[in-house]
């Protein structure tokens, strides 16, 4: 309901801009047939009822805040977003586990209590965040929703009461012929009904008056004006709080009546027009207000008579001008500005292969059997190179060296299966391979960048759908130093030159075009990740770290220097950067990085923070640190609720 209220608010304000434009143009069309101004109201009705917003660089609509910004709720998408940025092997280096004291690899159910595993696989559900007391913002939203529903209900009740009143009064109507009915309770004729319209006439009409009225009302039926009135009523019910909508509905009905008059008298001479106007004045003098459909004499009679006496002819130039005006209105006022806002909307995060993976709050990992005595592993398969994407496990059956991504045996096969190990499918088979740069799952595709032999300069990029079909291969010449990030069919790479110079490139995998994106000197690359329309770079110079964003248009945003020697970047629904024991979050509105407060368990003394996953309101981080009376650094997996600020310790790794 809150989401719907915000969308209606945007639709109403954007339609108001078009209403104001039509009001400004309408006086210039006064000398021409009313079909022109009546047609413009159709575009207004579409704007008030169509919930789909089309972006256009030619839009003249003001840049309105998003629904979430208007409501102030900051609601997040419920979809899962899983990201492991950079080199996954740098996140954790687990060479062994204490079999006597370590819990089974997996996610504890509650604060360190180890979960149970079935069939060699595990996936613990993320507990629901504790409910908080409603604040003043929630009360305001509840009041707005209630107020809106009450107003809509009041308008609907009034219209329904009028409908029942009219039907009760015309229950005694008698059919004269066809769809023409006579009723003693009717003083002014009108049309009722949409699917089977009926013309209600009062008694005592002369033959001349009757002919004029039937001509007018049948024109209404031919134009489907009863349906137009119903749509106008729906607009008023949905946007009852907007006075411009009420005013537009009134003017639309006036233009509709005058257009109907003009159509009815299209071939009439002056004497017939005078007789028609006399009938109109006669009906107007005995208005009953007992109508729920187009009525002959109950709308702006004086202006209608004036309009009737002026026979207007269509002008081809004016007609073309009105068509161009309608196209202009559709492009300028029925679209929203294309200001790059889409880049700030949550995008599907890339899922990188590595030694372990996360899904639904559970960690999946595997160890060589000779490193631990406890063989109850969280993965249902034997692998050290895996990822989880859309509730399926993707894994290699070939051993991947953790430090140089060397593939044992020069052959790579990737399979997928359900999280319980069933429904195995072969996704990718590369018969000749030496080293992998990156393997990524994103946008229902699997990307793999690699070189075939040790002496190769050209990097091969393969793209295959997650079903294993439509394999495409690209060749990128040159030594790119092993950096490959994929985003919307683009690959971001780096190359090294002399004097500590790093050059970054962007490759369009559709066209094969490559171009230099950015170069810097005197830095080393600490970490990187895809973010919106470009990449985030964390550069170091031995003293501090510099954080940059390089966009597709080659513009560079410098976020300044940060104290620290190491750092990790993450970008999913939000962007985070862990530097030392500090975590920063990117404020996309202000385009600045702000400290993100973390509530850590008291016994953990943090040394480094690595954000690795965002899932709804939950942020998952690996914390490097130590505990009292322990000389070794440990690694902790914690879940932070970004709304409540609560943290939950999910897993603790002991690193000798």
Return the structural class: alpha+beta
Q: Strands of the biggest beta sheet: in what spatial order?
A: 2-31-32-33-34
- Share of β-strand residues: 25-35%
Anisotropy-based shape: elongated
* End-to-end distance: 54 Å
Helix content: 25-40%
Which radius of gyration do the C-alpha atoms yield?
A: 35 Å
- Average pLDDT, rounded to a whole number, is 77
What does the largest sheet look like?
5 strands, antiparallel
What would you say about this model in short?
Helices cover 26% and strands 30% of the residues. The protein has 10 helices and 34 strands.
Write up this protein.
By secondary structure, the chain is α+β, with helices and mostly antiparallel strands. It has a domain at 138-312. Helix content is 26%, strand content 30%. It has 10 helices and 34 strands. The strands form 9 sheets. Strands 2-31-32-33-34 form a 5-stranded antiparallel β-sheet, with no helix packed on it. It has a 5-stranded antiparallel β-sheet with strand order 8-15-16-17-18, with no helix packed on it. Strand 5 and strand 6 (198-201) form a beta hairpin. Helix 1 packs antiparallel against helix 2 (35-49), helix 6 (225-238) packs antiparallel against helix 7 and helix 8 (270-284) packs antiparallel against helix 9 (301-308). The longest helix is centred in the first third of the chain and has 34 residues, at 136-169. It is elongated, with a radius of gyration of 35 Å. The protein starts with a helix and ends with a strand.
């Amino acid at each position: 309901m809150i989401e719907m209220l915000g969308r209606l608010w945007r639709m109403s304000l954007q339609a108001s801009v078009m209403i104001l434009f039509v009001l400004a143009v309408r006086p210039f069309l006064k000398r021409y047939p009313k079909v022109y101004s009546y047609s413009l109201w159709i575009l207004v009705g579409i704007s008030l009822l169509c919930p789909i917003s089309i972006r256009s660089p030619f839009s003249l609509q003001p840049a309105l805040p998003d629904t979430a910004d208007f409501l102030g709720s900051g609601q997040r998408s419920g979809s899962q977003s899983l990201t492991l940025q950079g080199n996954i092997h740098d996140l954790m280096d687990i060479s062994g586990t204490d079999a006597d004291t370590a819990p089974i690899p997996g996610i504890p159910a509650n604060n360190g209590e180890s979960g149970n595993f079935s069939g060699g696989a595990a996936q613990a559900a993320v507990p629901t965040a504790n409910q908080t007391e409603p604040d003043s913002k929630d009360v305001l939203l509840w009041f707005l929703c209630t107020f809106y529903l009450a107003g809509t209900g009041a308008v609907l009740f009034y219209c329904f009461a009028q409908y029942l009143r009219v039907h009760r009064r015309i229950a005694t109507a008698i059919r004269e012929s066809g769809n023409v009915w006579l009723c003693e309770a009717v003083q002014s004729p009108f049309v009722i009904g949409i699917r089977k319209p009926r013309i209600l006439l009062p008694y005592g009409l002369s033959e001349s008056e009757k002919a004029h009225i039937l001509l007018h009302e049948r024109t209404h039926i031919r134009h489907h004006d009863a349906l137009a009135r119903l749509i106008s009523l729906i607009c008023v019910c949905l946007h009852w709080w907007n006075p411009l909508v009420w005013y537009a509905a009134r003017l639309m009905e006036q233009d509709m009546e005058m257009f109907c008059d003009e159509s009815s008298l299209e071939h009439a001479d002056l004497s017939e027009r005078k007789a028609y106007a006399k009938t109109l004045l006669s009906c107007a003098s005995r208005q009953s207000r007992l109508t729920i459909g187009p009525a002959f004499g109950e709308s702006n009679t004086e202006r209608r008579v004036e309009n009737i006496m002026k026979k207007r002819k269509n002008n081809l130039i004016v007609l073309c001008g009105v068509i161009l005006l309608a196209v202009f209105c559709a492009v300028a006022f029925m679209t929203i500005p294309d200001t790059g806002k889409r880049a700030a909307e949550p995008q599907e995060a890339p899922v990188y292969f590595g030694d372990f993976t996360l899904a639904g709050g559970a960690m999946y990992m595997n160890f060589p059997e000779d490193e631990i005595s406890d063989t109850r592993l969280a993965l249902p398969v034997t692998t050290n190179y895996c990822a989880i994407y859309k509730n399926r496990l993707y894994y290699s059956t070939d051993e991947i060296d953790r430090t140089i991504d060397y593939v044992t045996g020069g052959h790579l096969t990737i399979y997928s299966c359900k999280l319980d190990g069933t429904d195995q499918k072969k996704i990718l088979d590369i018969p000749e391979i030496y080293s992998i740069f990156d393997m990524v799952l994103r946008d229902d595709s699997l990307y793999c960048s690699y070189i075939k032999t040790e002496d190769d300069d050209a990097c091969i990029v393969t793209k295959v759908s997650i079903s294993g079909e439509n394999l495409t291969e690209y060749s990128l010449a040159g030594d790119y130093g092993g950096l490959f990030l994929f985003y919307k069919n683009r690959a971001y790479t780096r190359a090294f030159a002399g004097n500590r110079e790093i050059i970054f490139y962007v490759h369009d995998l559709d066209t094969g075009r490559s171009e230099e994106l950015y170069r810097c000197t005197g830095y080393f690359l600490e970490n990187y990740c895809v973010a919106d329309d470009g990449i985030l770079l964390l550069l170091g110079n031995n003293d501090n770290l510099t954080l940059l964003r390089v966009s597709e248009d080659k513009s560079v945003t410098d976020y300044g220097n940060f104290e620290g020697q190491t750092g990790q970047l993450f970008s999913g629904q939000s962007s985070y950067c862990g530097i030392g024991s500090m975590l920063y979050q990117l404020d996309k509105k202000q385009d600045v990085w702000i400290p993100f407060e973390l509530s850590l368990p008291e016994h953990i003394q943090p040394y480094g923070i690595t954000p690795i996953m965002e899932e709804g309101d939950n942020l998952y981080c690996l914390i490097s640190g130590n505990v009292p009376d322990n000389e070794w650094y440990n690694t902790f997996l914690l879940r932070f609720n970004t709304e409540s600020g609560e943290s939950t310790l999910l897993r603790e790794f002991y690193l000798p």
